[in-house]
Amino acid sequence: MQTLQTRKSKWIWIGIVIAIAFVTFSNIMCYCCQLRKRKVVLQGHNETMEEKELCNLVISNRYIDVNEFPNDGKDGSNITIFSYKCIEVATNNFSLENKLGEGGFGLVYMRTLLTSQQIAIKRLSRNLGQGIIEFKNELILISKLQHMNLVKLLCCCIFGEEWMLVYEYMPNKSLDYFLFDSNQNKLLYWKKRFKIIKGIAQGLIYLHKYSRLKVIHRDIKAGNILLDQSMNPKISDFGMARIFKQNEVEANTNKIFGTLYYMSPEYAMEGVFSIKSDVYSFGVLMLEIVSSRKNNNFYDNEHALNLVGYVRNIYC
Q: I want to staple 281 with a disulfide (CB 3.0 to 4.6 A). Which of 138, 146, 219, 220 is the partner?
């Protein structure tokens, strides 16, 4: 009888140990899954100070201007970081065959992943002193802002001097590709142009009014409007954007960023920018969409005015 009780007690303890081991293992697996979900993993060693700063920025959920807007307690730092090797292989060692173009940030590449997903990779130019600031702006802002008329950030890559952002691929390139080409602009019939104008306006309203962050883009232009497969517009390039407090109306800067022919007069001459600055740029862009003419390349035969001046004269 005692032997039977001993055996029974023994199996009870074995069951308890197995249960504890199972619960412990489950907790460890859940923790690993959470880490995998965050995917904030730096590939490689020999981290530079900039790498550590950016990774800390992502992991700690800090922002460029942390005091300019409230923290609602949500973890918004779920940013995927690709390994450098993965992107190097995907672009065939950054082959020129995969190059889409070149902008103020650096080179842009396109590649199709094994999952058949097409991506655009923006590679920071090593010669840009301002590039690190722009990189952080884009990384944080686009990961926090979600709207159908804003380009979607998929992940980033940090490895030594290599800083890259990976976006959803826009098969129809940028708006200027269609607008200012005599053959391509024929594809933009009136209904489609109106749809593009409306989409850009909705994206700006979201940035200025309905997003948790009040954002001034500061570089709205045809080259920064990307078009998806259905010709839906998506605002891109947030490297020069600024975050405003909800009660902040305008700000002043000693350094003027953006494209001159899209700038509002008060910003170009005095460095004062606000929501109105983006609205002015949008107005110039809207005139270009309607006319298929560049603001800086338009000349009236009599007065050599730009597009805005010409339209103003007609209006008057």
A: 220
